[in-house]
Design a protein that fits this description.
By secondary structure, the protein is of the alpha/beta class. The protein has a domain of 169 residues: 3-Layer(bba) Sandwich (FAD/NAD(P)-binding domain), CATH 3.50.50.60. The chain is built from 20 helices and 17 strands. It has a seven-stranded mixed sheet, with helices on both faces. It has a six-stranded mixed sheet with strand order 9-2-1-10-17-16, covered by helices on one side. The radius of gyration is 22 Å and the shape is globular. The mean pLDDT is 95.
Length: 509
């Protein structure tokens, strides 16, 4: 090698999956270097000042709300609180304003949620309580590798500090059947049969809409059931104190403590950009892997990766407010996360328009008010407000006015508290993260097919060539800050490239 040091592993990209992979490898005693294209570390988990908005407040550039940062098997093993990250959950996990004082409210307390849903209380309890009670198994199934029994079980074994909690396959059967039955019901036309009230219908539909698919859909139902269950489980819809960057910083601290390094401003566009290493893990899109590896990938896998499809998009709109959002329904203001989409029918129309390449009149808006759970995010009277709206892939539209109008419908007077706003249109999202082509924040369409067979149907969804792995949200289990793609891929690399068969512990100490 002419004096060039051969690294054990290079990770391309410092998103939560890339860092999860890097930490896992470094903790196994390997030499790891992370190469990040952007000037700052963290990909979809960064919190930064926005100079156009005054630079005083900190904004989550992408992710803001983190049920999976305490519930995912990777993060349960890593144990963010033990790594100094304070996760706080508001008493209302998420809310769905419906106009006037009407709203669906998902309290952390399931019984209170059901009571608030009146005639639909029992129907909500019957659907969500069994999933909330078995959230560990449901999470392990939803965040597994979607291929092998081992890949599902590895999510419920080896839980670091929680290692006493081990389950066999049998323990997954009942929760798996319940989750499957609920998914079939809520993902198809039968979703109309469960609830009578608009509050309950819209409350669950708002969570399903995270998938950015026409509704109902199985991908939307899977998303809704997992996230709705976690709202009532141990950690709720948590917000890290200080913002999502706290998660990234904890991972980077741990990586460095175990000898790993991170280099920013290091885009990998070609094979020659990579230092020599025994293994390379890409926290990137399949498109990037195809470009960098070219015919190092065998032809059938190359062809399969080329068929990977990206989905519709989000346009981000951040606001600076001079006070809280004046929600007409007061309990909505107790939620960090608000789904601003109106009724189920309105959300169906909005998502259908996006699927047909049209900007809806009333777009589906996801809103996070971090100051509700983390008052440290508020400076005097001014506070950051994080929103994004669903739009067709590649949209160039500035959504500031559409989002403002949509919030104003449920919070009359909202305009009066807005002191600044800036939009990142969907086609610009890629400028701060190559993994979101055309604004696809899921790094791949969330069709049911691609939620299972992502990025291809290969028995191993992670290894793409000898010594090369894909580990981003374009692999199972898909989008979200859970670190599972990185963890699954790193564990395979440990066995195959380094013959390390024990899973390194991740908890501090
Ligand atoms: C607006 C928005 C809101 C979201 N809200 C939430 C939320 O509230 N909760 C939640 O759980 N999830 C949320 N998500 C999704 C979540 O952020 C992502 O699914 C998650 O970050 C994916 O992690 P990752 O590691 O796979 O990729 P990313 O976090 O996207 O990181 C990929 C990294 O790789 C780098 N990279 C890419 N290509 C190259 C290259 N060629 N060379 C070098 N570096 C490269 C990128 O710069 C980036 O830093 C949101 C996403 C967006 C965009």
């Amino acid at each position: 090698m002419g004096g060039v040091t051969l690294l054990d592993a290079v990770v391309v990209g410092s998103g939560p999956n890339g860092l999860a992979a890097a930490v896992t490898l470094a903790r196994a005693g390997l030499g790891v270097r992370v190469l990040e294209a952007q000037p700052t570390i963290g990909g979809g988990a960064r919190t930064l000042p926005v100079p156009e908005l005054g630079g005083d407040l900190l904004f989550d550039l992408c992710s803001a709300v983190h049920p999976m940062a305490w519930a995912s098997p990777f993060f349960r093993a890593f144990d963010l609180p033990a790594h100094g990250v304070e996760l706080v959950a508001p008493e209302v996990a998420y809310a769905q304003p419906l106009g006037g004082d009407r709203a669906g409210i998902a309290w952390r307390d399931l019984a209170r949620t059901a009571d608030g849903l009146g005639a639909d209380g029992d129907a909500w309890r019957d659907l969500i309580r069994p999933l909330a009670e078995s959230w560990r198994q449901v999470t392990a199934l939803a965040l597994g590798d979607k291929r092998t029994v081992r890949g599902m079980l590895e999510g419920v074994r080896d839980h670091g500090a929680h290692a006493s909690e081990t389950w066999g396959l049998a323990s997954l059967v009942r929760p798996g059947l319940r989750f499957g039955a609920a998914l079939l019901e809520q993902g198809g036309p039968r979703w109309e049969r469960r609830f009578l009230t608009e509050e309950a219908k819209a409350l669950l539909t708002g969570v399903a809409a995270h998938a950015i698919t026409p509704l109902p859909s199985y991908a939307g139902a899977g998303t809704a059931l997992l996230l709705a269950a976690l709202a009532h489980a141990d950690g709720g819809w948590a917000v890290p104190v200080g913002g999502s960057q706290a998660i990234t910083d904890a991972l980077v601290r741990d990586l460095r403590a175990h000898g790993g390094t991170v280099e920013t401003g290091r885009p990998v566009d070609a094979w020659r950009d990579l230092p020599p290493a025994r293994a390379v893990l890409f926290d990137t899109t399949p498109t990037t892997v195809l470009r960098v590896l070219g015919d190092r990938i065998r032809a059938p896998r190359r062809a399969a990766l080329r068929r990977f499809r990206y989905g519709n998009a989000a346009a981000k709109v951040d606001f600076v407010l001079s006070g809280p959002v004046p929600w007409a329904a007061p309990d909505v203001g107790r939620a960090s996360t608000v789904h601003v989409g109106g009724t189920r029918a309105e959300m169906v129309i909005a998502e259908d328009a996006v699927a047909h390449g049209v900007h809806p009149d009333h777009p589906m808006v996801l809103l996070s008010d971090p100051g509700v759970a983390d008052p440290g995010r508020v400076r005097g009277a001014t506070r950051p407000l994080w929103t994004y709206a669903h739009v067709p892939a590649g949209s160039t539209h500035d959504l500031t006015e559409a989002v403002t109008r949509q919030i104003e419908r449920f919070a009359p007077g909202f305009r009066d508290v807005v002191v600044g706003a800036r939009c990142i249109p969907a086609d610009q999202m890629q400028r701060h993260n190559q993994n979101y082509p055309g604004g696809d924040i899921s790094a791949g369409a969330a069709s049911m097919w691609q939620m299972i067979a992502r990025p291809t149907l290969a028995p191993d969804p992670y290894q793409v060539a000898e010594g090369v792995y894909l580990c981003s949200a374009s692999t199972p289990p898909g989008p979200g800050v859970h670190g599972m793609g990185g963890w699954h891929a790193a564990r395979r690399a440990l066995v195959r490239e380094f013959d390390v068969r024990h899973v390194p512990g991740l908890a501090p100490g």
